Each structure stands twice: as C-alpha cells, then as structure tokens.
Hints:
Blueprint: H1 2-10, H2 15-30, H3 34-47, H4 52-58, H5 60-108, H6 112-117, H7 120-162, H8 164-171, H9 174-211, H10 213-218, H11 222-274, H12 280-322, E1 343-352, E2 355-365, E3 370-375, H13 381-386, E4 396-401, E5 404-405, H14 411-415, E6 418-421, E7 430-431, H15 432-436, H16 445-454, H17 458-462, E8 471-472, H18 481-493, E9 499-503, H19 511-522, E10 529-533, H20 537-540, E11 545-550, E12 553-558, H21 560-566, H22 569-579
Parallel strand pairs: 3-10, 3-11, 6-9, 9-10
Antiparallel strand pairs: 1-2, 1-4, 4-5, 7-8, 11-12
Helix pairs in contact: 2-5, 2-7, 3-4, 3-5, 3-12, 5-7, 7-8, 7-9, 7-12, 8-11, 9-11, 9-12, 11-12, 16-18, 21-22
Amino acid sequence: MFELKWLWQNLKGDRARYILALSLSVVGSSLTIVNPYIGQRIVDTFIAGDNAMQNLTDERGLLIMLCLGMIGFSLLRTGLAYLTTMQYERSSQNMLYRIRIYLYNKIQGQDMQYYDHNRTGDLMTKMTGDLDMVRHSMAWIIKMIIESLTIFIAAVIYFFTIDAELTLWLLILSPPIFIVAYIFAKRVRPMYIDLRERLSQLNTTTQENIAGNRVIKAFAREEYEIEKFADKNINYSKANKKAALVWLDYFPFLESFAQGFNVILMLAGGLFVMNGRITFGEYAAFSSLIWAVSNPMRNIGIIINDIQRFFASLSKIVDIYYAKPYIVNEHNPVEKRRFEGRIEFDHVSFKYDNGKVLDDISFKIESGETIAIMGSTGSGKTSLINLIPRFYDVSEGRVLVDGIDVRKLELDELRGNIGIATQDVLLFSDTIDGNIAFGDPDLPEEDTIEYARLAAAHDFIIKMPEGYDTIVGERGVGLSGGQKQRIALARALAVHRPILILDDTTSAVDLETEEHIQKSLRELDYPCTKIIIAQRVSTTAEADRILILDNGRLIEEGTHAELLAKRGYYYDVFMLQNEGIGRKVTTHGKE
Ligand code: TTP
Ligand code: MG
C-alpha cells in the first residue's frame, strides 16, 4: 500500500485527470446496464408481454424511441470509452515522464558505492521495463479492474431490483471463486518476484556481453558467452512459463464457476419465469447481463497476474526512488572558490566492503607541488586518490583540502577544483573536440587544440579522418590505449583546476611522448598541485616528492635522490628499470 501512496504522490499535476479517468470509467461502465434495461422493456412491451401485438400497433413511437435510445447509448459509451482511454494515457504518460526524470537524476546523484553494488543491467531494467509495467498498470490494469468491478456491481444492483432471490442464487458462486482466486494470488506472487529477478539477470548478461565484446572476442569465448546467455534466457523463459502455467491449475475451477452462472440462471430463472415470478423481458435482461457477473470472475486470474507483476516492478522502482547516497551535495548556496590546492591526509584509513586497503596514511602536499605516487599493483594508489574528490569517504582520519575536511565542503565546489584523469579511460560517443571540452563546453577551439598539444594528442588527432570532429567512442573510430589516455589528459588539463590528479595516465604512451607530456605539465599556464600516479621512474624522478605505497601503507616518502639513497623499494624499481639487471623487487625492497 505504501507503493500505491508513492504512485499517488507522483501523479501530482495529473491527479485531477486521473480521477476524471477513473470517474469516466465508472460512468461509462455503469451505462452498460442501460441497453439490457431497454431490451427488457422492448421484450416485455412488444414481444412477449400480454398486449404485445396491441402495443406494437399503438405505441410504435415508443418502440422507435427505445431503439434509438439503444443506438444513442451505444454511441455515448463508445465516445466515453475514447475519452476515458485518452485521460488514462495522458495522466500515466505524464507520470512516467516525471518519474523517469526523477529516477535518472537520482541515479546520477548516487555515489561510487551505489555503482559498486548495483548492476548496470538491473538499473536499465528498472529504468525501462519496470517503469513501463507501472505505467501500463496505471493505464490499463487499474482501468480493467475499475470497469469490471463497476459493471459487476451495477449488474448485481440491477438484478436485485428485478428479483432479489434469483440474484442471491447467482451470487452463491462468488465466495468459492474469491477463495480460489486468493489461493492463486498467494501462490503466484513469489513467482513474479523471481521472474523479475531473472529478467534483470538476463539484461545484465546482455549488457555485459555487449560492453565486453572485445574481451570476449580476444579470448575466443563467444561460445561460452552464448551458452551463458542461453542459460539465462532459458531460466527467464522457464520462469515465465511456470508463472503462466500456474494459472492453468486454477483455470478449470474458475471457468466452471463462471459457466455455473449460466446454468443457475437457466434453471432458477427458467423456473421463475414459468411460475410467473419474473417476466420474459426480465429473464432476457438477466441473460444479457450475466456476462457482466461471470466475466470479472473469469478474468480474475489475468488481473491477479498483472497486479503481481505491477507490484514486483513497482517495488524495484521505489527502491531507486528512496536510495540515499552516503556522499551528497548539500547544495548550500556557496560561492565557488578557487582553492589554493593544499592537500593533507591525516591518519587516513579506508576500507571497501571486503577489507582495509589504506592504513593510517599521513602526508601533506603544498600548493603547486608535484607529487608522484608509486607502488605495486593493488597497493591502494587509486583508492587513495579517490578520497580527494570524495568518490568515497575515509573510514578513519581526515582528508583536508586547503585545510578543510573534504566532508565539510560542498561536493560541487570540491570537485569543481579538481581535474582528474582516471585510470580506466572512458570517452563518450562524441567528437574528440566534445570529449576534450567535456568539463567546459564553452572552451574556445584554440584552447582545445592547445590542450591537445600539451597532452601530445594534436598530431594524431589531425591525422584522423575528420580531425577534431571525428566521432570516437562506441560508434566512432577506435583509438589506441595511449591515444585515449592522451585525450583524457587533455580533458583533465582543459578544466584549469588547481588540483590535477593523473592516475597512470602515461602508462600506455611511449617514452618520447611521455617526455613531451612531462614538459607540458611543468609549463602549465595555471597554478596547479599535481598528483601523478606512475610506475616509471622516468615519470616520478622529476616530482618534488615521491610517495611509495605498499599494501595500503605509506612506506617511503622523499625526493628522487633521497629515496635512491635510502635503497628501499624505490631504489629497487630504479635499478630494475634502468639497468634491467633483474634485481628482484620485494615488498620491502629487500632481496
Ligand atoms: P587500487 O587502489 O585500485 O590499487 P592500485 O591503484 O594501487 O593498483 P593498480 O596499480 O593496479 O591500479 O586497489 C587497492 C585494493 O582495493 C585492491 O586490493 C582492490 C581493492 N579494491 C576494491 O575492493 N574495490 C574497488 O572498487 C577498488 C578500486 C579496489
Ligand atoms: Mg590504480
């Protein structure tokens, strides 16, 4: 019920329209009893009544009126049905539109942790299939329920006015039908929840296969992946069939009960007519409206199925709706300052769900300094820099920027002061120009070119078919790993931020290009604190200071010369890279 309340809230702006649709549904379906009533009048007056022949000649006018009335009401009902459907469609589409925007914003506003825990395929299912199911339910299933119910009630009331006893005889079938329907609903509900889960798995597999297509091809694992997909597909299909077939267990009972209405009507109604308790016309009215009582009973299974699907989807959407990110922008109206770019880690520890990755790390970076971070793979370098823009929050200690705990800063302001080139380079399906200017869409063209030059990307860009207008990413021309890194670097430089973080950004470029990039970084035309994660001594050597991480701990800190003199981890790496003599690098720099 909480979910329905939620839907009601989201109908805001279209509530009046939706209530109008519901009311029109009620009015339109109540009118269903008018024609059988007119039919009853015609039969009793002109066909089967005592003075039928007499009336046929005397009251021709009335007969024509009644016939015209029938036609008129049929047209009216059609017109109403048209209007009703329009109102349902409009209000539910408007609601869907609003919820979609809200959910999209909500997903955008989530922190990294949310994405660690939610599969893309699942989120996509929620944003598409689930939302559509909810809209479909609002427009069609609720309409069907309301209309069936109204027709049922109207018919029963009408029946009562004709003959209460006969009506009660008919209604004797309702309680067993409701009991069967209730048992069915209880049994089928978990099946639809399961079905929904399998659909999400199917979508996740599809999405991963498409995204990871290159890797699959590289390992010639197509067949395995096709099998994996087929597996999920079969699972989903089986669950679908299972849920649909459950209905068949109950169908014979419900159908028999529904047929029972006709039988009772024939037996009891026939007797009543013979006894003169009801007229022929009244019997005809019963007979022409008996479907209004038996059909809802027949459809109860379909309705229950759809309602279960509706709730399974609705609860998934409500999940997104109420998901709260831990790391949020308070949106206090602050004036966006330009930071000096001082950074401090004060006894910082950090853990993901599965264990500690940073342990009691403390260091300070002054404004304008260039710091290199080195360490074996998995030592926590990326995790460490992720704490500065608050992609994650520390578990213990503090990260300070310009002397202020990042948790006390506005996210927009903090991130607006950081230019970052992440380790996994992601370019958008856009032009190269659009990708470089991603952080600043107003970037003049000459600046785009300038930053591409600094990132050693200009030369290869102009050789591309359409230069800066070449589309890259999913649909466009492919780029090499080093080329992507350089565009990502240009993108990070182009935003002019006082803090620049480069996570392994030159790992895939050749030494000559790297040298060019280093020179550019030294000569940047704006003041900037730089944190550069790198594996090559050629990159780290020129930094003001080098931090060495090992297994989440800061084990060495100093200049190139100091660390060489220390003869620890850094010295070993240096020897390995410069002399190639194969000194073994151990975690603590000892052989
Ligand atoms: P990273 O911080 O990613 O290690 P790194 O950047 O030093 O490694 P590389 O040189 O290969 O880029 O990971 C540190 C540990 O944290 C590692 O054991 C994996 C774990 N980890 C998670 O559990 N979840 C995450 O999202 C990330 C990024 C890392
Ligand atoms: Mg990393």
